[in-house]
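Data card: per-record layout.
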Amino acid sequence: MTASDGLSAEVEVRLGALDLRVRLAVAPGETVAVLGPNGAGKTTLLRALAGLHDVDSGTVVLDGEVLEDTAGGRRVPCEQRSVGMVFQANLLFPHMSALENVAFGLRARGVRKGEARRRAGDWLDRVGLAAHAQATPDRLSGGEAQRVALARALAGDPRLLLLDEPLAALDASVRGAMRRELRTHLAAAPGVRVVVTHDAVDAAALADRLVVLEGGRVTQEGTLAELTARPRSRYVADLVGVNLFTGRADGTAVTVTGGFVLTVAEQASGDVLVAVPPRAVTLHHRRPDGSPRNVWEASAAAVEHEGDRVRVSLAGPVAIVAEVTAAAAGELALEAGGPVWVAVKATEIDVFPA
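The structure for this 354-residue chain is written out next.
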């Protein structure tokens, strides 16, 4: 291998009922999202790559350096690996300021105190938290604390950056903004990036490629478009159930396929992806009044009952899927071919660069 090889890993971990067997290759400069249901082994995989969990069998090679080789008896301790990790619960030290939290990792690697604090200050400035350098974690919002955790992981210029559900703990009100911010930082980070998430929108926004992990095995990998075109499991089919469109943004107007224009809440420009959760699509007997900025008439092309929910595929100026309760479907008397009015609030539409 050469120094430009990125990450090459083949690991087996047996942990209780979990039998994890994964082969993963990530090119230099690439961001890969690992998705899967609870218990699939996503976090265990990250911890194995970081050296925080023993590998029963396999190898981990980063930029030509062998970090793990069970057959050869080699194992580089986690503190000696060029790895930065952001946990779902950001795990900041509660008694330390934001500056001290970021500097901690550098100090642990032998950087002198003054230099560590200077570099920590630079990173807090990069993530927009210079004014909060002396704040302890209890005085930070969830988004601010997550940015401190990200700065701490990036401060050491790791060759491998691992993020475990970095957006899951955030309120919906800040999640979209943090997603865009995280995308910018990941694009600028050197080396290899691996993000664990359960959210298809997060994966599409943050990653170049998706790897689906189910029951400890990789069941599918590729771009979101490739997974959407040919899902290979029920999980993947459900995962990509989000309405996803390509479009061209100009301010708060996005023209999607077919020339239909959607109004969104935030300014954007250029080629974008537009995500609309099916549950954000509301259906009505007649044209609704009130706040929705996107309203159009359609027909129910297909109606599928799934437990207490009903998925409605709608034909019209833009093809979209709605998910409503069985009670709502009954009130609307939904049936295939029936007319219906569709409404989507601008604030429910997520737009990110294509």
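Known properties of this structure: The mean pLDDT is 87. The chain has two domains: 7-239, 244-353.

See the next section for split statistics.
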